[in-house]
Write a structure and sequence with these properties.
Layout: H1 16-47, H2 51-59, H3 62-73, H4 78-107, H5 112-136
Length: 141
């Protein structure tokens, strides 16, 4: 069998899009990390000047909004994003335990890190209990 130059069966295809996609994905991941770090840095800097303004900035669900933007960017369905948002609503409740337990313990004389630890433990327990409730009553997909 003789092969002739230009024969379509000899054409090699190189998918450069995949290589570019991986490189772009790494760049997008780096941008996500940089933006997250910048937001945290900004809140800390503002807190040195105005704790109320820093609290307002920290209370904005920036992480949730960014996560949903990244989910959309990466092609997740509307249904997945809706379920994610609904789950956040239910999980906000136990996350409030940190902001209740920690200050109460610090007002009672606890040092920062033990109070923070107790607040985090209470939050994790709250998350566990809330996820059990969510599963029992079909609040998660």
């Amino acid at each position: 069998m003789a092969f002739v130059a230009g024969d379509p069966s000899l054409t090699a295809k190189v998918d450069l899009c995949m290589a570019n996609t991986r490189a772009m994905s790494g760049g997008v991941d780096a941008a996500k990390i940089a933006l997250t770090a910048l937001i945290i840095f900004g809140v800390v800097q503002v807190s040195e000047r105005n704790t109320l303004l820093a609290a307002v900035l920290a209370s904005i669900p920036i992480v949730s909004v960014l996560a949903m933007m990244w989910m959309n960017h990466e092609g997740q369905s509307s249904e997945e994003i809706v379920e994610f948002a609904k789950s956040i609503v239910w999980l906000v409740l136990p996350s409030l335990l940190l902001f209740i337990v920690m200050p109460v313990l610090m007002e009672r004389g606890w040092e920062f890190y033990p109070a923070l630890g107790a607040g985090l433990v209470s939050t994790f327990i709250g998350y566990f209990l809330m996820t059990q409730v969510m599963e029992k009553y079909g609040l998660v997909a």
